[in-house]
Structure formats: C-alpha cells, structure tokens
Amino acid sequence: MNAIECKNLTHYYGKKLVFENLSFNVKEGSILGLLGKNGTGKTTTINILNGFLQPQSGECLIYGENSQNLSPQNKARIGFLIEGHIQYTFMNIHQIEKFYSKFYPKWDNEPYWHLMSKLQVSPKQKISNMSCGQRSQVALGLILAQDPDLLILDDFSMGLDPGYRRLFIDYLREYAKEKKKTIFTTSHIIQDMERLIDDLLIMDFNRVLAQRSVKSFMQEFKQFHLELENPDIDISNEEFVVNSEKVNNKLELYTYESEEKVLNFLKNNGVVHKNFRQVEMGLEDAFIGLTGKY
Predict the structure, then answer these.
(1) Residue percentage of the chain with pLDDT more than 90
(2) Does residue 108 sit in the same domain as residue 166?
(3) DSSP 9-32
C-alpha cells in the first residue's frame, strides 16, 4: 500500500514552469529521498504535500485523501518538518516538549529526549541560544514524539556539522525501520541521503531524471573514464550517453549501458582510445553525473 500517491502534478510560479505531470508513489514503511538542484521544485513538492500550496493541476493523496483536504484523523498520522524549523524560541527544550505534548494523544517523549541527549544540552537550554542545526534536531525530536506514521522532512539536517549529521541520520533510519515509519525527505547533502533512503526521485528542471530504488540506480548507472586519441571526437549526443564531460582528450562518460556495449560502440565507430576504465561512484557522484555539474 502507498502512503503517498502524487498524480500528474503541474505547477507554475507566474510563467515559470516548476514541473509538469510529476507522478510518484511512496510505499508504506519505505524512506524516499527527493533529490534535485536548487530551484527544481523540492520544497514546492513538500508544500503541496502539507497543503500549503495548491498545484495548478494534479493531486497528491496521503493515505487515500487529497493533501489539500485531509481529515483530522489523517492529519494526526503525519509529522511535518519544514525548511527553517520555526519554533517558540523563548522556551527551553523542557518547556517546549511539555507544551507540544498537550496537543498529541499518542505523545511519546522518549525519542525526543534521546535526541536531546545526543546534542548534549541541558533541559534548561533556551532554544534562542541554540545553533540552527541544534534547533532543527529539537524540531525533529518534537515530530518523532508525536508518533506519526508518515514523516515529511524538508532539509532536516540543515546546519549540522558532519559528525552530528551522521549520528542523527543513523538514528533516524534505525527509528523508522524499528517503528515501521514512512519517510519522505529532501536534503541538499547527498551523502546524507545515501545512508538514509531506500528509494530516490531525482528531479531536474521540468522533468524527472530517475525514480527507482537506490540499490538499482547505483548498480545500473555507470561512469567510465577514457582518453581519446582524437580530442575533437564528440559522442555526447549518442543515445546511450546520459551525460559526459570532456577536458582536452580526457572523457568522463555516464550511461546505463554495460562496459561491453560501450566498448563495442567505440570499436564499431572507430573511436581510438586508451586507459578505459569504470569508476566506482557514491550517490553524490552519480547525482552529479546524471544532473551535470552546472
């Protein structure tokens, strides 16, 4: 069963098209990461899901209901973390936990205080005196304590240093899998997503570039390096080439094709080369290879 079903979403800001006929599903119990460069519609998608924004056409269903008109019962099943992590900054972390707990019948403060212990802050720590990254984790802890079935998180690791990011990502994945939670999330830090997500949706301007499991994407999308004898040869427009970058005679080639098929193409078309090799990639390398550096 799907926790989220978005069908044929189209949205503009003025005359600028953000995306057209965007469709995707998020399975219950899975963690899906929405990846894209700045301005490709990640936060717009989040705002449509949380009902802040009405798309020009199409719809998003959350547990079978339109995200623009969710029932109180379904709203109670969803935890939202929006970009900016707005909170009552005059409170300390003990006061804000007590304040929020009155609104949620299923409130469980254990994950909240677990996260606070990892931040190594005292219960009397004022939120106004915390860093941006610490505030984001207070917001995340308050969401986990609501015990939602679905977490929709926009840049939840914003402002955290690398050590804290890894700690919280590992905690969040362990929490979600143990509690069978569903997560839909965005992040500008691709290394974070590689440790967290099961499935990915990579967006470019006005289109979807990839929508599949992380495992299958990393197995099927490949990077090859080679040196051309003739640096003027250009194969960037060949059908099997997803992306490429050439500096002098050195070529980086990104494709879903196998090494054998690429080598056969080069041989059959008389492309003389040397030092051909496949390069192992992390998710960030693959993301840049798919979307381009610029």
Answers:
(1) 74
(2) yes
(3) EEEEETTEEEEEEEEEEEETT-EE
In terms of domains, do 175 and 79 share one? yes
| DSSP code for 267 | H
Number of structural domains found in the chain: 2
Contacts of 289 (CB under 8 A, 6+ apart): 221, 223, 242, 243, 252, 254, 281
The pTM score is 0.91
Which domain covers residue 99, as residue numbers?
Answer: 2-216
Question: Is residue 84 pLDDT above 70, yes or no?
Answer: no
Boundary (domain end) residue, out of 184, 216, 248: 216
Report the alpha-carbon distance of residue 183 to residue 243 in Å, rounded: 30
Question: Can you give the CATH number for the domain in which 18 is found?
Answer: 3.40.50.300
pLDDT-derived band at 137, boundaries 50, 70, 90: confident
Verify that 123 and 14 share a domain, yes or no.
yes
pLDDT digits (tens, 9 = 90+) for 28-80: 999 999 999 888 889 899 999 999 999 999 999 999 999 999 999 999 999 99
Q: How high is the pLDDT of residue 71?
A: 95
Residues 155 and 244 in one domain: no
Say which DSSP state 234 is in.
-
Strand partners, 278: 224
Distance in angstroms (rounded) separating the CA atoms of residues 7 and 5? 6
Place of tokens 């798919």: 290
Pair (101, 238) in one structural domain: no
254: buried, middle or exposed (CB in 10 Å: 19+, 13-18, 0-12)? Answer: buried
Burial of 181 (0-12, 13-18, 19+ CB in 10 A): buried
pLDDT at 278: 97
Q: Is the pLDDT of residue 294 over 70?
A: no
Distance CA 80, CA 154 (A): 8
Of 140, 137, 150, 207, residue with least CA distance to 184:
150
Residue 132 is predicted with a pLDDT of 79
